[in-house]
Amino acid sequence: MQVGFIGTGSMGSILIEAFIEAHALLPSQIIASNRTREKVEKLASRFPGLQVATDNQEVVQNSNIFLICVKPLEYKKVLDEIKDVIRPAQILISITSPVFIEELEQNVSCKIAKVIPSITNLVQSGSSLVMFSERCNQKDKESILRLFSNISQPIEIDEKVTRVSSDISSCGPAFFSFILQKFIDAAVEETNISRSEAVFLTSQMIKGFGKLLAEEKFTLETLQQRVCVPGGVTGAGIQVLEREFGDIFNQLFHTTHEKYREDLNNLDRMFHKL
Fold first, then answer.
1. Is the dihedral of CA 246, 197, 213, 257 positive or negative?
2. Domain extents for the chain?
3. Which of 176, 197, 173 minimizes the C-alpha distance to 187?
4. N or C: which end of the chain has fewer CB within 10 A?
């Protein structure tokens, strides 16, 4: 199987690295292109055997499956470049949430899937959100799920909930990294602990916390109950969180969905302009 990547920016390069390090793909099974050729050449120097394409058409012509890993507003240009060399038996995988499968079906003749990855896939963890067009048969679906199961837990979702699902699985690591950074900053500002100590303790806590959930030792609720002994320090801290936290995540989801609708409107104008 030959797998192509159009775009090797942040997520494209993460996926390439993840697949290779998980031994899901050999470098020689990958061909990639980028507007800045040096970015692909840098990947090829890290992973000898990875093929550097001269353009996007070459990626498609030499792939069974190809992933488009570009920003939403670059999609129409890429599709116009490659549509004449696409073969019906190929599978196009989009990793961009606001580009709908239906829209892709109107622009290309091949099979289509949509997979929203996460930075956590780099360590063969986390989820990948998977959607299929009706052109994909069972064998196609199994092939894609098998490929992504090497680096994640693939979860098939309804395209209608792509945005909120992506907020949780794909954007979530950045959101919670921000919260943890604020947690560390406050510890350093309010006490005598050094930043390096606070970072180390927080990192170890998060690793252990994730393992407790992964091994199903606790649910989120029962973990809180277990740590919060009556009259204890943790309970007093939880009271502050309950009092101050408010509807911050409601606002977050409201904002991400507003931005999503803005992206959809921009894409609609781009795809359907006369």
1. positive
2. 3-162, 172-227
3. 197
4. C
* Residue 263, H or E segment: helix 248-272
Considering the chain, what percentage of its residues have pLDDT values greater than 70?
99
Handedness of CA 8, 14, 15, 16 (dihedral sign): positive
Which runs of E-coded beta strand occur in 146-201?
Answer: 153-156
Question: CA 140, CA 91: separation in Å to the nearest integer?
Answer: 8
**Which of 208, 186, 206 minimizes the C-alpha distance to 195?**
186
Q: Which of 70, 6, 68, 76 is nearest to 40 (CA)?
A: 6
Tell me which residue of 55, 166, 41 sits closest to 114, measured CA to CA: 166
In the chain, what percentage of residues exceed pLDDT 90? 95
What's the pLDDT tens digit per position in 26-66? 999 999 999 999 999 999 999 999 999 999 999 999 999 99
**Beta pairing partners, 228:** none
Q: Which long-range contacts (CB under 8 A, 24 or more apart) does 139-147 make?
A: 140/91, 140/111, 140/113, 141/113, 143/1, 143/65, 143/91, 144/65, 144/91, 144/93, 144/113, 144/115, 147/3, 147/19, 147/24, 147/25, 147/65
Q: Which CATH class is domain 3-162?
A: alpha beta
3-state helix, strand, coil split of the chain in percent (to 5) is 60, 10, 30
Sequence-distant (6+) residues with CB within 8 A of 153 are 126, 127, 128
Instruction: Please report the pLDDT score of residue 7 as a whole number.
Output: 96
